[in-house]
Design a protein that fits this description.
By secondary structure, the protein is mainly alpha-helical. Helices cover 72% and strands 1% of the residues. It has a two-stranded antiparallel sheet with strand order 1-2.
C-alpha cells in the first residue's frame, strides 16, 4: 500500500524514512503540538515551500532546466486570489467562489506564460534560457509594483478570506484536544491536505513514463531527440506543470497570510531560497524538497532565537558573546548552508541513500 502511495519511489533509507515520517506527523499535528501563532505560521510556510520547491525540482532536478521565473508563477497565484477576493467577494468575506475564480484565472495565465516561455525560449541552451527567464521575472515584478490600482503596488493587497477560514470563525464551543478550533486552524489543514495531495501526485508524475522521458532529456537531450522525442515539447510540458504547481503554492500562501505583495512572492531573494533548498535537500528526489524546506524554514525563523540564548550564556566572554550575537544570524545561516553543501554534495537525501547503499541495507518497503 505504501509502495503504491509513494509511486514505487520509496525513500530507500531507514534514516530518511524516519525523518520523512517524523516531518509528516509533526506537520499533521502542528496546531496541537505547537500552539501559538508563530509556530503555526512556521509550519504553514513549510507546507507552502514544500510544494513550491517540489515544483521547481520537477523543472531543475528532473528536466535539467535552470529557470529564474519560478517566483513569477508563485506571485501570479497569490495575486490571482488576492485580486479576485478583493473585487468579487462580499463585504463579509464569505465568497469562496472568488478564491476559485482567482485561482482559475491565475492558472490560466500561468499556463499561457509558461507555454510562451517554453516554446520560444527552451530552444536556447543553459545560461541563455536562465537569463531570459530572469528578464521576464524582473519585468513582471516591475509591472506588479507599478499597476497599483490592480495590485496595490509596493504596499500589496490585503483581503478577506471566506468566513470559515477567518480567525473569528469557531465551529465548536469547546476545545478539541486542548485546542480551540478556529478558521485559522481550518485554513492550516486546507494547506496541509492540498500540499500532501499535490506532492503525491507530483511523485507519481516523475515516476511515470512522462517522468522517465524528462530524466532522459536531462541526462542526454541529443540522444532523446535522436530516438524520437521532441525535447522542446517535453520541456515545455514540464515547464507548464511546474508553473501550475507554483501557482497553487502562491494561492495557498495568499490564503494563509490574507495578503500578498511583491516582497512576499515575487522577490529575487525567494528565488535564491528555492535554489538553495533544492541543492540542500537533493536535486531530482522530490523528498529533498521536504527535508530542505523544513531545515531552511526552521533556521530562518529560529536561528536568531538560538543565538540569543547562546549570547546570554556567553555574555561574560567578550569575543564569543559578540560572535554569537543575534544580529549575526545571517552570517551563521550562510555558514551553515555552505557547510551543508560542502558535506552533502548530493543533498541530504542523496547522502542518506548513499550511506544506505554502502551499508548494504535493502530499500525500505
Amino acid at each position: 500500500m505504501l509502495n503504491r502511495l509513494l509511486s514505487h519511489d520509496l525513500p530507500r533509507s531507514r534514516w530518511l524514512s524516519a525523518a520523512l515520517l517524523l516531518i509528516l506527523l509533526a506537520l499533521a499535528a502542528a496546531p496541537f503540538l505547537f500552539p501559538g501563532a508563530k509556530a503555526m505560521g512556521v509550519a504553514a510556510k513549510m507546507l507552502v515551500f514544500i510544494l513550491l520547491v517540489a515544483s521547481y525540482d520537477l523543472l531543475l532536478g528532473y528536466t535539467g532546466i535552470v529557470s529564474f521565473a519560478h517566483t513569477m508563477f508563485f506571485g501570479i497565484g497569490a495575486y490571482g486570489v488576492a485580486i479576485a477576493s478583493t473585487r468579487l467577494a462580499g463585504e463579509d468575506g464569505t465568497g469562496f467562489g472568488a478564491v476559485l475564480v482567482g485561482l482559475g484565472g491565475a492558472l490560466l495565465l500561468s499556463l499561457v506564460l509558461s507555454l510562451l516561455i517554453g516554446l520560444f525560449s527552451l530552444r536556447v541552451k543553459a545560461i541563455f534560457y536562465a537569463m531570459i527567464t530572469l528578464a521576464v521575472a524582473s519585468a513582471f515584478q516591475t509591472l506588479a509594483s507599478q499597476l497599483s490600482e490592480l495590485t496595490g503596488g509596493e504596499d500589496g493587497l490585503s483581503f478577506k478570506t471566506p468566513g470559515w477560514l477567518s480567525p473569528s470563525f469557531e465551529p465548536f464551543d469547546t476545545p478539541v484536544l486542548g485546542l480551540m478550533i478556529d478558521g485559522k486552524v481550518i485554513c492550516y489543514y486546507l494547506l496541509f491536505g492540498v500540499v500532501l495531495l499535490l506532492f503525491l501526485a507530483t511523485l507519481r508524475v516523475v515516476n511515470s513514463p512522462f517522468g522517465r522521458v524528462l530524466q532522459a532529456i536531462r541526462e542526454n537531450d541529443f540522444r532523446a531527440e535522436a530516438i524520437g522525442y521532441r525535447t522542446v515539447v517535453w520541456r515545455t510540458l514540464s515547464n507548464v506543470l511546474s508553473a501550475g504547481l507554483a501557482t497553487v503554492a502562491g494561492a495557498l500562501l495568499a490564503l494563509w497570510l490574507r495578503y500578498t505583495g511583491p516582497d512576499t512572492t515575487l522577490s529575487f531573494e525567494i528565488m535564491l531560497d528555492i535554489l538553495l533548498i533544492v541543492v540542500i535537500g537533493g536535486m531530482g528526489t522530490l523528498y529533498g524538497a521536504v527535508i530542505g524546506s523544513v531545515l531552511f524554514v526552521l533556521a530562518q525563523n529560529y536561528l536568531q532565537d538560538l543565538l540569543r540564548v547562546g549570547n546570554q550564556a556567553l555574555e561574560s566572554v567578550p569575543l564569543a558573546g559578540q560572535l554569537v550575537s543575534p544580529d549575526r544570524w545571517l552570517f551563521w545561516l550562510g555558514l551553515g548552508f555552505v557547510l551543508c553543501v560542502y558535506h552533502f554534495p548530493t543533498g541530504v537525501v542523496g547522502r542518506f541513500r548513499l550511506r544506505a547503499r554502502q551499508a548494504g541495507v535493502a530499500p525500505v518497503d
